[in-house]
């Protein structure tokens, strides 16, 4: 069964950062960087300033605040995504201002300041304790479990999940603490269109995304066009940026009111998200959001350490088996004998159940392999195709129809080309590894288009929809592919030293 990719076809192309709308729990101002004149604002500003947008436009921001805005604290890099926090007083209303400097203007996001501010020492003590609990976890399951438990205690959200992306940007819930009284999502997978490419890209610029209530009415900017850029405002870096209506509907269909997500970046790539759900509206202040950001960053460092250790352990094991083969390639004149003399090293090097060396019109077999005729037919197919010199696939039957007949033995293949013209190859086989994907709702119904084919809605059911995966092996790891490339190099070096007759 083929799952539709709405992310590539539709959702991933929608410009969600040029919508000229913000969420109503705050206010947005755009100031001319030269003189702090207000050139654009959100239409709800009257409830804070006591004047209409038309009356405020063109005035100086300093007229409205009790203390001057110290621009020396701002980043001088116009391409920076950093926001500088300030406490400002507007008509005796204490506000938290997040200010970001662009080349020609300033973006000011205002929200009501929390009345129960904690001092630095209290916050530091709390974070230090939670850091120590997370730090004690020395394996991935323990780390995931400790992180969602501690972050839920800090955040007060009903549900906290860790959501990991795969190579196709499907997201899977790999850890969860659920106090919502609703369905668990642990182990369920969600299609890329649930968090489309445009939204994922914004997490490269912003550490978190907050929606205090999914039932809000968005607020427009006035005027519609930014007078300085003569275009719609780019709200990519704004916490107050409104989200598409379809996403709010998506949350409501899930029974979620408040939502928050904090990014997990590994090697500057979006690895996943820490996602928060709440049954009722929830308005965490900037201090709490910053604490959650710090906790997520600490978790990310611990996660990266564990993943690096896994990579190191795997690389060390691969090197051990590869070096054993290379020693034989240097010591023996016969390439066949060099590769097959210690067959356990070849099988363990590529974590395969069987291998075939086709060399000088002879077939040498190890372990569990397809029958000779199927192997020969596959070699003919390889010779006709323009495949890479190291070719790996874990769902061979999708490319080579005949492979369904031997899927239980060889659904996955790793091919090292020795001499394509003469049909000389080293081929490693992996058996079928059938499994079930538990989707959070039918992924082929992720979007429901109206009759006009323009307006659309998210799926309204998240009941588990099971997809059976067959004729597929475990995927080949990058470390194994690099080892295959190295081995191919040494095979050619061996043939150079011991040319064929």
TrEMBL record:
One Gene Ontology MF term: photoreceptor activity
Alphabetical UniProt keywords: ATP-binding, Chromophore, Kinase, Nucleotide-binding, Phosphoprotein, Photoreceptor protein, Receptor, Sensory transduction, Transferase, Two-component regulatory system
Domain PAS, residue spans: 28-60
Matches recorded under InterPro entries: GAF, GAF-like_dom_sf, PAS, PAS-like_dom_sf, PAS_2, Phyto_chromo_attachment, Phytochrome, Phytochrome_cen-reg
Domain Phytochrome chromophore attachment site: from-to ranges: 139-301
Example of a GO biological process term: regulation of DNA-templated transcription
PROSITE patterns registered for this protein in UniProt: PAS, PHYTOCHROME_2
Name of the molecule in the record: PAS fold-containing protein
Organism of derivation: Olivibacter domesticus
SUPFAM superfamilies named among the record's database cross-references: GAF domain-like (SSF55781), PYP-like sensor domain (PAS domain) (SSF55785)
